[in-house]
Structures are given as C-alpha cells and as structure tokens.
Design brief:
By secondary structure, this protein is mainly alpha-helical. It has helices at about 25-35, 55-65, 80-90, 95-105, 110-115, 120-135, and strands spanning about 5-10, 20.
Length: about 140
Amino acid sequence: MTTTGVWRLPETKAGEEQIVHLSNAACSLLSKIINGRKRGFLFPGKDPAKALTRPGKAFARICAQAGVDGRDGQAPLVIHDLRRSYCSILARRGVEPAKLMKLMRHSTIHVTMKYYTHLQDKALVEASNIVGDLLMD
C-alpha cells in the first residue's frame, strides 16, 4: 500500500493495468486491514490461502445481515451500487466530468457524461445565476 493514495492494479479482470486514486479515509482503512492481518490476501476467500473470488456474494451476505436485502418488493443492493453512489455524490458536489471519468476509470468521457452529469444541473443553474445576478444589479 502506498502512502500517496495511488494504488496500482497490475492486472484487472479486463487484463489491463489500472490506477485507483484513494481517499485518505480509504488509505487509513486499508492500512488497518493490512496491518491487522497475519499474512495472505487483502480480501481472502473462505479458504484464507485463496483470494476472494465472488465479492458480490459476500456483499449480499453483509447486506442481508444489516437488513438491506431487498425485502418488501425492493431490488437488492448490489456491490456496483456503491460505485454508482460514489460517483453520484462527487457529481452533485460539482466535480468536473474529466475527474469523474478518471476516478471511475471509465474508458471514455461519454460514459461519464451519459450517467452522471445530469446530477450537476443545480451547479449549472447556480453558474448561470452569476450572470443573471450581475444583470439584475
């Protein structure tokens, strides 16, 4: 683990190297996990000698234990929802699409624009009001 907040993944499931930019909070949590383990994988499977291969199943168990399991006709939360929420929060806070694209590791800016820039409508209205307010003075 690096102290710079940059995590290099030498090979992802797509077979490519990727860089993940981690927050200070994520670095702190990962450091605690790494320092607390005796050996082996960061995310071990049921057999500690093997890596976790189905994180979605583990996530579903965690959600069920927390009472977030899609009862009462609601769709269950899936692990990808965490990724969507992360980007949605950033978009609503006005983070530029180019930065969102890099943080989400989207292949093109078009993917980011399609799914997240509508969340910045409030910021765009506020920006438009800058000129409107000047004209009204």
